[in-house]
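Protocol step 4 of 6.
Sequence for Sulfotransferase (Glonium stellatum) entered exactly as in the expression construct, tag removed. Do not edit the line below.
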Amino acid sequence: NAMPPPKSPRLIDCDCHALTRMRPMKVLVLGMPRTGADSMFLALKILGYNPYHMKVAIESPKYDLKFWNEAYKAKFFGKGQAYGRAEFDKLVGEYDALTDIPPAVFVDELIQSYPDAKVILTIRDPDEWLACMKSTVFAIVDWPGIRILKLLDPFVVGALFTGIDLVAKGFFGDYGGSKSRQAYIDHYEYVRKAVPKNKLLEFHQPFEWKPLCDFLGTSLPNDSFPRMNNPEKF
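Step 5 output, structure tokens:
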């Protein structure tokens, strides 16, 4: 009998990431992008956390995007072994808070990996969210120069747009259509059912410090709550 072909090594199994978790995971912000993820990222920094966000993945000297793309392929398309606690510890072991996509689409994996972490849902009206996504994240996919940039910079631009495509097809179902809207609604309902109420904060805009700090058990900062990344700035 012929031997089965050897499994291809996974990118996450390389030695370019921390092998263990360096600090406990404390906060999972599982709201969708364009629901205040940038503001939450800065707010958590002000509160003393070390948060992870898409901008961190993009700026990573270890080129984190390719690892997330590997995780997307396993989760949504059954290609390779799914990521769990060991893989996330290697990828984001130095962070104690996660926000934005990529992390937000790994609800089951993250709450199972870090059951002691508190969960925050940043919330926005579905139609407002869809309109914002169509004018920002989904809009840039059609930029004429993107194909050239993907070839010139495969590690960042190429990997970023590969990831957008994987999430659009695997999670949202389309690029800003009715499937995206329903996926948004389904995501929030799923998180509400998956997380105990005493560990979940539904955080509505305009964001204010008090409900967040009460939930996390932190002191109120003197600074006003950060308001970041409106559609015009994006």
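Step 6, annotate. The chain has a mean pLDDT of 91.
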